[in-house]
Amino acid sequence: SPFFVLKTASSTFTCSVCVDVIARAFQHIMARAFQRICLGLLAVSGMAEKTCRTQGPAFIQHRRLLSKPAQSELHLPSSIHFDAVVRDFKDNHPDMQSMDGHTKGLVKPILGGDKKPIYGGGPQLSNRTNFDEWFRDVEGVNRRVDFQLDMSLTEEGTYVYENDNFFPIDGKGWADSQIALDGQPHNFYFTLELHTTFTYQGGESFRFRGDDDVWVFINRNLVIDLGGVHDPMEQVVHLDDLNLTKGSAADLSFFFAERRCCGSKFRIETSLRPVTGTCTLWGDPHIDVFDNGLFGAEKTEPVSIYSSGDFWLVKNEDVQIQGRYGTTIYTTDGRSSLLAMAIGGPFLKNKTLVIEHIDGGKVTWDGEEILKSFPSEFVLEGFMSVFFREGTDHIDTVLKGYPIKMIRALMPRNVMLTVHRWPKHIDAIIRMPQQKGGQDGHCGNFDFNATDDTQEFIQVRSGAPVPIDELLFPSHPNSGSGILTHDAKVKALSLSDCPPDVKAKAKHSCRKAGVKRRVFKSCVFDVCFGGKEFAAEGAIMQEEEAQEEQES
User: Fold this and answer.
1) Is residue 15 a contact partner of residue 41, using CB atoms and an 8 Å limit?
2) Backbone angles phi, psi at 63, to 5 degrees
3) Strand 303-304 relative to strand 79-88: parallel, antiparallel, unpaired?
4) Residue 536: its pLDDT value, please?
5) Residues of 489-522 as b/e, b for ≥16 C-beta within 10 angstroms?
6) Which of 289, 301, 344 is nearest to 320 (CA)?
7) Whole-number mean pLDDT of the chain?
8) Run of H or E including 523
9) Strands (E), 183-262
10) What is the pLDDT of residue 299?
11) CA separation for the pair 190, 206 (Å, rounded)
């Protein structure tokens, strides 16, 4: 076990307490204390951080592993997930149950153009043809099973998945089995492939421990090489060592193989986060799409939708969110605002959460009204939490006169929803990572490219109302639900249609509210055609969006 040793200009401090024992016994609290003591003494001595060393592994390495990532942790979800693909093989495959030993270089150091490892060769591989079957669907050779890798938040702000009996496809694939070390039958002989994109913030790490083969690539470069059939082995990569640019997107590709009976250990710990995007809807409505402003890019003006009816906000095979646009007392010339949202799909077990405005509206789950009082909450333990409460206290001082009744929903697949319920309409923020299989809708296609999410492109791809047979809402907007909407498109207005005196007052109101430059025109538009109160409510949602982005 390593001993802490601190060397200064005048003396040497030694602490003979094992870091690992402390970390396990006190859940890293004492380790953090040692870090602070060490760095504090260095500051007093005026010496560089690198003078803090251990007998054995460097103290700096321990500090980096145990420190929190650079991102704010005020709103970290209790779990995150990664979508993976498992391919099941039989024990008669030439690379299964017939190899032994650990060898580096079984794969090339650069990932292939198809995001697959390139055969390098070695004593634990039979030949290129057989290896190329590992991470590709090959009829008669393997069977594909989609798998969601759920990782839990630790007290250190990292996420961990750990399983000493890692058999994710028992009863699936070929459905064969052998008796494992735990005395139970399990399905061996499989590979696992995982890809994700994250934003490098500084200080992140990725650690794996297990058996058998593991290869990790970041931006197509091999950073962890644990190839072969071996007992559990461990390796960690610190992203600060990879010459990445802070705030930039980076790709991670993870490959694993379980090739031999009779044990299977698997542990990942990381401070990486999947890229999370924000879609904000407010006002007429104006829509800030997921891709707008990602990776430090300057945000552009929001998209504006003027039609009424039910439209896709997010359309994905698992996550489905629809918005109901309609006229209110604030809108003029048939223009719309967001009246309600419906969230459903397989990720919610095909049940639906519907959130409507306050006057005459309600919040329902699977058709039953919830959150009838204020404040209140609706919690399905381990699945979903929905809170109805006052808005937070960070709203701009000018807007303090507008009380906020806010819905905050935490849902599976790291989908988070913030809704401001106003008397006649709602404003909303949707936060989520990219979804498996792609997505589209008025919130954009979330492909890390904002140029294909202009108003023109979105209207072409998602401009049509949702067909009745795909509606998540319990009733069609024209079926007597009491919400005034229509499916006709409305002639687009511009600020040139706003009377000069009204426009001048609108600009004054928006400046007084401290509206940001890029949404200033949207604010002026809302005042011109919806009124000062309507625009102020939208400005509050913009403040909420800015706060959430700062804390994410």
Assistant:
1) no
2) -60, -40
3) unpaired
4) 52
5) ebeebeeeebeeeebebbbebbeebebeebbebb
6) 344
7) 80
8) helix 520-530
9) 185-186, 190-199, 205-210, 214-218, 221-225, 228-229, 233-238, 249-258
10) 87
11) 22
